[in-house]
C-alpha cells in the first residue's frame, strides 16, 4: 500500500510541474518522472505473482536508482549556477543509460547485473533474493559518486550566500544524505522491504520547495523579451521584502547587489539602491498598490534612469513578491532636450 501511495503522490507532483506554466528546469521534470516511474515499479514488484513479473517490475523500479542520483546532482549544479557543458551532460547521462541497459538484462542468459534471483513472498509483500553481477558494482559506484559530487558542490557553496541561499543548500544536502543513507541501511540490515520509494518521494517533495521558489523569482520568468532583459535592470523581492535576485544589468547599475545575500533583508545603509529606490519600494508596499507605478527619473553622475515597481504574481495571479524595473533613459531625455532647443 505504501508503494501505491508514493506512486500517486509523485504522480500528482509531476502533473503539478507539467501544468505549472513556468520554466522550472528540465532536470526537475526528469527527476520527478523517474521517481514516479520507479515508484510504479516498486508497487508492481510488491504485487507480482511470479518471478517473471517480479523481474519486469524490478527493471522499472531501477529507474529511480539509475537516473535519480544524476538528476539530483544536475539540479544542485543548477541551483549553484554551475553550467555543465552539453558534452559533459551527454556523456554522464549516456553512462547511466548503459547501466540501465544492463539492468534490463536481468532474467535473461546475460548476468551483467544479476547473476541469479529467487522469488519470495513475505508479510510485507514480494521481494527478490539476488546475487549481483559486475554491473551492479558500477551502479553502486555511480550512486555513491553522484551523491559525493552533490555533497562536494553543496558544501563548497554553503557560505556563498550571494549565489545560493543557505536554506536551499541545506535542503539539498539533507536530500543527498537521505537518499544514499536509506539505500545503505537497506543493504547493511538486509531488509526485505524497499525504503527507496519513501525516501525519494520525501526527497522530491523537499526539493520542489526551493526549485519552485527559484522559478517564481527567476528574472527569466518575467514576461519580457531576451533583448530587453539585456538592456533593462530587474531586481526581485519576496513579499517580506527579502532580496531574491537580479539580472546582470541591475548589478551594473547597483554594484552592491553583488554582495547582497539571497533571501535576506535589504542591507540597512549605503549603496545606490538605498539612495534612490528603497524608499519608493517601501512606500509601494505600505500603500498596498495592486497596479505597477512609474517613479520619477533620477540622476546618477551622467546617467538618468527611470524605474517601475510592480507585483510578482504566480500562475494563479496570487501576489508572491515585488519587482523593480530600471531603465536608462539618458539618450531619450537628451534627444528631447535637443529637439526643444
TrEMBL record:
Residues 4-216 form the Histidine kinase N-terminal 7TM region domain. Pfam families: HisKA_7TM (PF16927). Keywords: Membrane, Transmembrane, Transmembrane helix. The chain crosses the membrane at residues 60-79, 91-113, 138-158, 167-185, 191-211. Coiled coil: none annotated. This is Histidine kinase N-terminal 7TM region domain-containing protein. It comes from Pseudobutyrivibrio ruminis.
Amino acid at each position: 500500500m505504501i508503494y501505491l501511495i508514493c506512486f500517486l503522490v509523485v504522480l500528482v507532483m509531476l502533473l503539478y510541474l507539467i501544468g505549472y506554466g513556468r520554466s522550472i528546469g528540465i532536470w526537475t521534470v526528469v527527476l520527478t518522472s523517474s521517481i514516479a516511474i520507479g515508484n510504479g515499479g516498486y508497487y508492481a514488484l510488491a504485487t507480482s505473482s511470479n518471478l517473471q513479473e517480479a523481474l519486469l517490475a524490478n527493471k522499472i523500479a531501477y529507474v529511480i536508482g539509475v537516473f535519480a542520483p544524476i538528476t539530483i546532482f544536475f539540479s544542485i549544479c543548477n541551483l549553484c549556477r554551475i553550467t555543465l557543458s552539453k558534452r559533459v551532460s551527454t556523456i554522464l547521462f549516456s553512462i547511466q543509460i548503459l547501466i540501465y541497459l544492463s539492468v534490463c538484462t536481468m532474467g535473461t542468459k546475460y548476468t551483467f547485473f544479476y547473476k541469479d534471483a529467487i522469488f519470495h513472498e513475505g508479510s510485507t509483500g514480494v521481494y527478490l533474493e539476488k546475487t549481483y553481477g559486475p554491473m551492479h558494482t558500477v551502479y553502486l559506484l555511480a550512486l555513491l559518486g553522484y551523491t559525493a559530487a552533490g555533497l562536494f558542490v553543496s558544501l563548497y557553496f554553503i557560505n556563498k550566500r550571494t549565489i545560493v541561499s543557505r536554506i536551499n543548500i541545506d535542503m539539498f544536502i539533507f536530500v543527498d544524505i537521505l537518499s544514499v543513507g536509506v539505500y545503505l541501511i537497506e543493504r547493511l540490515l538486509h531488509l526485505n522491504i524497499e525504503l527507496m520509494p519513501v525516501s525519494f518521494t520525501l526527497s522530491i517533495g523537499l526539493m520542489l520547495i526551493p526549485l519552485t521558489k527559484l522559478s517564481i523569482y527567476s528574472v527569466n520568468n518575467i514576461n519580457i523579451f531576451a533583448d530587453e532583459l539585456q538592456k533593462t535592470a530587474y531586481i526581485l523581492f519576496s513579499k517580506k521584502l527579502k532580496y531574491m535576485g537580479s539580472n546582470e544589468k541591475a548589478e551594473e547599475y547597483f554594484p552592491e547587489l553583488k554582495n547582497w545575500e539571497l533571501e535576506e533583508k535589504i542591507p540597512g545603509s549605503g549603496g545606490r539602491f538605498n539612495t534612490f529606490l528603497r524608499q519608493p519600494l517601501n512606500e509601494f508596499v505600505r500603500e498596498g498598490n495592486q497596479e505597477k507605478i512609474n517613479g520619477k527619473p533620477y540622476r546618477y553622475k551622467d546617467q538618468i534612469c527611470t524605474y517601475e515597481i510592480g507585483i510578482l504574481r504566480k500562475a494563479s495571479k496570487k501576489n508572491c513578491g515585488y519587482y523593480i524595473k530600471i531603465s536608462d533613459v539618458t539618450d531619450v531625455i537628451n534627444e528631447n532636450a535637443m529637439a526643444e532647443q
